[in-house]
């Protein structure tokens, strides 16, 4: 078995640093955000975030068994070390890679603070001073956050074209010029919840929703819709074709993610741009989408797929095929700012997702005076590391009961 441990690598003075502890906690926003800290003996702590979901904090803290004593400056080697050391735990994909992604991001933050460089510079370049944001929206009362703890969906009656259009206008008025809605609905399950086929009624309702939003916001606003992997090739094709007149930015996740050729078949049959990639891991699971031109916009999640360096590799592969890269992002401000550094460092980055409009304390998770998003953009931080610090009081206030917390 390959050994990615340090093996006593020599260090220049000032770079002989060790990891002393790795910890994780869960903050309840509109999702359960898995925050990560990497402590070092240099007095520097790196902050990161792994994709939401159970089991990730436990996997993060498991890595103390072999990462304590390692040098946090070796970010990419340590990511490979985690994957290799936990390969018997399913470590080449899934939750282990997700946990490793959060640690990797925290390592970049620590390395930047130690070396006095922003993360985008460690990744190799800076292509832009600010990153364009698209806002993930929900139709009126169809989606709400109950005291920041969990999401709550409304009855089917809330999903009217008018509700979508009203929300679209509201969000555009906030300064966003790119927005996205979910297009999968409860009525998709009628008359059968299992087979993935859309009835004419369900299909026509979706077209009415898209038409209402486009009419409300005009042609200058970029507009996308997400289907959450629900449909057959036939139904996805019918939907994508019917939406061609509305000039969508993209239609996302139209078929289940396991079969790349099915995704490619839908892409071949329609002019509507298709996006996917958020639930695939590492370059190995995304290369087929890229090489087969099965996707028009690639949307991996850096906090899922392997962290910033792995995402950069994926983006570079996509650039070779002239495919834009728009990271999926349902994170707290921590993961969001990590994605901002990534988008600053790659030429084919397009828009970055923001999915916390319902969380009125989202900005308060970081120690800063100005809003994170301004007029639909996030400025790329120039401070060392990710350029952010946690507001520990806000973390404690919204920490999931029963989690260990962060020092």
UniProtKB/TrEMBL annotation:
UniProt key word Lyase: yes
UniProt keywords, alphabetically: Lyase
Coiled coil, from the record: none
Family matches, as PROSITE patterns: MR_MLE_1 (PS00908)
GO MF annotations, alphabetized: lyase activity
GO biological process: amino acid catabolic process
Pfam family for this entry, one: MR_MLE_C
Keyword Lyase: yes
Gene3D superfamilies attached to this UniProt entry: Enolase-like C-terminal domain, Enolase-like, N-terminal domain
SMART domains found in the cross-reference section: MR_MLE
Limits of the Mandelate racemase/muconate lactonizing enzyme C-terminal domain: 161-273
Tree of life domain: Archaea
Signal peptide start and end residues: none
Protein name: Mandelate racemase/muconate lactonizing enzyme family protein
Taxonomic classification: Archaea, Methanobacteriati, Methanobacteriota, Stenosarchaea group, Halobacteria
């Amino acid at each position: 078995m390959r050994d990615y441990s340090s093996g006593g690598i020599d260090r220049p003075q000032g770079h002989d640093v060790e990891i002393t502890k790795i910890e994780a906690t869960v903050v309840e926003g509109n999702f359960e955000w898995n925050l990560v800290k990497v402590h070092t003996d240099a007095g520097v702590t790196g902050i990161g975030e792994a994709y939401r979901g159970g089991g990730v904090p436990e996997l993060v803290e498991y890595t103390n068994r072999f990462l304590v004593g390692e040098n946090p400056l070796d970010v990419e080697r340590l990511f490979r070390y985690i994957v290799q050391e936990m390969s018997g735990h399913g470590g080449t994909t899934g939750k282990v890679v997700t946990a490793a992604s959060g640690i990797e991001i925290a390592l970049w933050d620590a390395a930047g603070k130690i070396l006095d460089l922003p993360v985008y510079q460690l990744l190799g370049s800076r292509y832009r001073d600010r990153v364009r944001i698209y806002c993930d929206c929900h139709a009126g009362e169809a989606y709400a956050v109950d005291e920041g703890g969990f999401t709550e969906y409304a009855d089917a009656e809330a999903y009217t074209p008018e509700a979508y259009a009203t929300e679209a206008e509201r969000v555009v008025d906030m300064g966003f010029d790119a927005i996205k809605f979910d297009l999968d609905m409860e009525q998709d399950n009628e008359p059968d919840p299992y087979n993935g086929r859309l009835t004419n009624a369900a299909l026509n309702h979706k077209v009415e929703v898209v038409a209402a939003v486009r009419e409300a916001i005009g042609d200058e606003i970029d507009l996308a819709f997400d289907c959450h992997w629900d449909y057959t090739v036939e139904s996805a094709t019918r939907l994508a074709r019917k939406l061609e007149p509305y000039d969508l930015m993209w239609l996302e996740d139209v078929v289940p993610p396991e079969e790349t050729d099915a995704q490619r078949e839908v892409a071949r049959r329609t002019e509507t741009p298709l996006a996917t990639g958020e639930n695939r891991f590492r370059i190995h699971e995304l290369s087929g989408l890229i090489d087969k031109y099965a996707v028009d916009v690639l949307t991996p999640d850096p906090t899922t797929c392997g962290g910033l360096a792995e995402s950069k590799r994926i983006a570079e592969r996509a650039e070779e095929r002239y495919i834009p890269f728009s990271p999926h992002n349902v994170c707290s401000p921590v993961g969001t700012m990590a994605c901002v550094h990534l988008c600053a460092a790659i030429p084919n980055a397009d828009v970055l997702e923001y999915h916390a409009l319902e969380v009125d304390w989202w900005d308060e998770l970081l120690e800063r005076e100005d809003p994170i998003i301004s007029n639909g953009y996030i400025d790329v931080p120039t401070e060392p590391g990710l350029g952010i610090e946690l507001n520990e009081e806000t973390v404690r206030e919204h920490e999931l009961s029963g989690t260990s917390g962060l020092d």
